[in-house]
Amino acid sequence: MSAEKITLTLPDGSARDFPADATPIEVARTVGERLAKAAVAGELDGTIVDLRAPIRRSGKFRVLTPKDPEAGVVIRHSAEHVLADAVERLFPGTIIDAGRQDHSEKFQYDFRFPRGFTSEDLEKIEQEMARIVQEGRPFERKVVTRPQAVEIFKNRKEEIKLVRLEDIPEGDVITVFQHGKFVDLCRGPHVQRTDQIGAFKLIETSGAYFKGDERNEMLQRIYGTAFATKEELDAYFAKIEEARRRDHRRLGRELDLFSFSSLAPASPFFHPKGAIVYNQLVALMRELCREYGYDEVVTPQLFDVELWKRSGHYEAYRENMFFSDVEGREFSMKPMNCPAACLIYATRGHSYRELPLRFADFGRLHRYERSGVVQGLTRVRTFAQDDAHIFCTPGQIGREVDSLFDLMFRVYAIFGFEAPVVYFSTRPEKAIGDPKLWETAEATLERCLKERGVEYVANPGEGAFYGPKIDFVVHDAIGREWQLGTIQLDFTLPARFELAYAAEDGSEGRPVLIHRAVLGSIERFFGVMLEHFVGDLPLWLAPEQARVLPVSDKFLVAARTVRARLAADGLRAEVDERSEKLGAKIRDGELGKVPILLIVGAREAEAGGASVRVRHRGDLGSKTIDEIVATMTTTTKQRALNPWPEEDKEEGRGKKEEGRP
Hints:
20 helices; nine-stranded mixed β-sheet; 4 domains; five-stranded mixed β-sheet; BirA Bifunctional Protein, domain 2; alpha+beta; 33 strands; Ubiquitin-like (UB roll); 661 residues
C-alpha cells in the first residue's frame, strides 16, 4: 500500500482517509462485505471508475451496485466482452476488433468474419452468452507494458488488436481485462463477475468499415444491450417501440408532410401540408420578434470566402461548409447568419442611443453533414433558424439576456416543454479571439445566470468557437433530451469586424454581440415536435384543422357551407366528399390526425351547424356554426394545446341519426 493518503467523502457525508493506491473494491469492503459483493464500479466526483483501479486522488466517492442507474454503462460494457467471448467460442478463428465507446444504451463489437451474421447466429450467440454469464467468472484488470501487450495478442493471433495497440499514445497506461480465457485490450470499467450482467439482448447486425473509414476492410458488427434486471430490459425495448411509433420520418410520410430525394441528399421537401406547419412555426417566431423589439433582415446565401476568413469560420468551421468557384473567386454558402448581421451593422455609424439593435434573420443555411450522421429532419444539410443577433453595450447585456430567458421559457411552454435544463458552456479547444475577451464573456454570461437565479449545469469546453453560450435542453413526451435554444455572448466578432458606436462620453465603444435562437433549426424543431405530439399537432399548427363529413351525399351542400364559413374566418378545413360510409370517413379522419371532425346530417343541416367530434375525446354533440368558429378561432389564437375546451361537453350527445353508426 502507498504511504500517500487521499480523503474520500462518502454518501453519508463522512470523510475517510485511504492509501492513494486503494481501489474502489477495497473502499467498499471497509463499508461492508455485502456492499463489496454487490459492487460493480466506483464513482469519483461523478466519474465512473473501475473497481480494481487505484483511486489516486481525493474527492466525493460512492460505490455503485446494479440498483444504481449509472451502473448500466458498466453492465453493458461487460456484456460487450461476454459477446466477443461467445463469438470466439462458437466461431474459432474469428478476429476481433474493438467495442463501443458509448455504453449509455448499447454495446457492440466488430469482427473479421467471412459473412454477415444471421438471426440464427445471434440466437446461438445469446445462448452462449447466457452460459458465460452463469459461470460467474471474475473480470481481472492487468496493467501491462507495450511489449507484453504485443506478446499477448500475437499469441492470440489478434492482428487487429496489434493495430489498435499502435493507436495508444506512448506513455499511456495500457490495461487488459480478462474473464476466463478471453482477454481484450480495454480501459474498463467492468463489473466484478459475469453473473452481475442481469439481462441482455442482441439487437441487430450490420457491416462496418474498420475505424469507420470506407477505404478499409468491411467488418461484421453485432449490436446488443444489457441491464441489471429483465424489467429494465423490457422497459428499454418498450421505449424503443414507442420511439418507433413516434418516428418523425414515418409520421411525415404517413401524414404527407415532407419527403427526401437522393437527388438532394439530406435536404427535405416540405409538401403543402408540411409547409403550413413550417410557416406556422415561423409566424409564431416572427410575431414574438415584433413583440420583443426585433427588426427582420434578409441577407445573401453566397459569400466570398474572404468574409469567412475575417469572421473566423474559415479557420474553425470550413470542414462543415460548402464551397464553389464563381468567375475565379472562391465562394461559400453561408453556414451561419452572424457575419451578415455584422456587415449590416457596419454600413453606417451608430450611437449608444440606438442600442440595442436586434436583427432577426430567417435565412436559409447550408452545412456539410457527413452522410453517416444525417437523419431525417433532425440533422440535415439545408435549414433555416429562428436566428437573431443583438448588438448592445456591455451595460445592456444583463437586461437582454434576462429578456431572452423570458422569451425561451414562454415559447417552450406553448409546446408543452416544461422546465428546460440549462447548460453553461465555456471556451472550446478550437476557440478564436483574445483569451482575455473570452474570460470577460464567460464571467459576464455566468453572472447573468446567477442574477436570474437559473439553475444550470456547467459544460466546460463546449462553447461556440467565438464565445461562451447557454443552451436549453427540453424533454419530450417520453423523456428524451433535445437541445433547442441557445444564447451566445460574443466579444470576438465585433472586434474582427471593427464594429463601433459613439458612447455617451463621446468616446468610441465596441458593441457586444449576442447570438440567439429559440427553436433553433426550424427543420429540426419540426421533427422533434412531431415526435413529441406523435403527429397529433395542436389545432393552431394542424395543416387541416377540421374535416367536414356529410352523412350522405344529400348533405354535401350543407357540408360545403360549413367549410366555407370556417375558411372565411381563416380556419383550415376540407370536406370529405367521397361516397363512403360515415364510419369510414371518421376512421380516415382519425388516421389523418385531424383535430376536429364536423359531422353534418339532417339535424345539423337544418340548424346550420355540425356535430363536433374532437380527436381523442369523441363526440361533443351538435353546435351552431357560430359556436364552432368562435371556439376554434379562440383556441387557434391562444395556441392552446387542446383543440377544444375540456369543460365543453353536452348532455345527450351521441344520439343516432340517419346513416350514422
